[in-house]
Amino acid sequence: NRASQIALYIVIGLATFVFFVLYFFPLDAVISDSLANMETLTKGEYRVTISEMAPSLIFDSEFKDFRVLQKSKMGSEEVFFAPRIKARVSLLSLLSGSLNASLTAYYKNGTVSGDIDLSDNQSVADVEFDNISLADLPFLKKYLEFSGTQLGLLGQLEGSIYVAFEKDMKDSVAEVKMAIYAAQLDEFEIAAFGMKVPALQMTADKTYVSFEASLNNGEIKLSRFNIPGPDLEMQLSGTARLGRGYSVVQSSFDG
Fold this sequence. Notes:
The protein is α+β, with helices and mostly antiparallel strands. Helices cover about 15% and strands about 55% of the residues.
């Protein structure tokens, strides 16, 4: 009947429209612009580079040689690298100039997965680490230094990080829970004393380095930092009050 024909024409029209949108929509250009806009969203602090991408509006988009570079005195340094990433990006967020995505980064033996939401007012990341080699996380290098010497930390990482950075630091929150298995500190030299320190085992079988910390109302709370040994042992907990620019203005730790 006439009503059925009209309904069929509407369905065919909508299906054709969706097909042309999916087929001809320049998603690769939109994603490229959004990745380039990362530098603007982070006020020049970070930028993203990729060697190849296979975008999709329906399925996960795939990126190869995904790098995040951070601005430094020497130009820029790599803080994150993944050989392959699969991501599902919100089209509406791209069109509005922000970035909302779910992603999984694949490494040789593990994965890093999570959700990110970046806008002018807020930066949110909820990330989980599953059997990740610390050697695959270059951003750790900037925090691993002793007496001017770069330290090499080996091990397998399990854990999660949640951060929500606001314009007002007091509104920012974070929660970190980490466990490092087979943890070892590589041999290093203390140049000032001309002394070489041998490799140190930080864990034994069935033990792990544990780290739990949070940020709330401008205060960092270190609930647990435990290195069980045998060669290197440590237990630490405490709090630190942050000032402007996330600098520490007051701290109290026990260990």
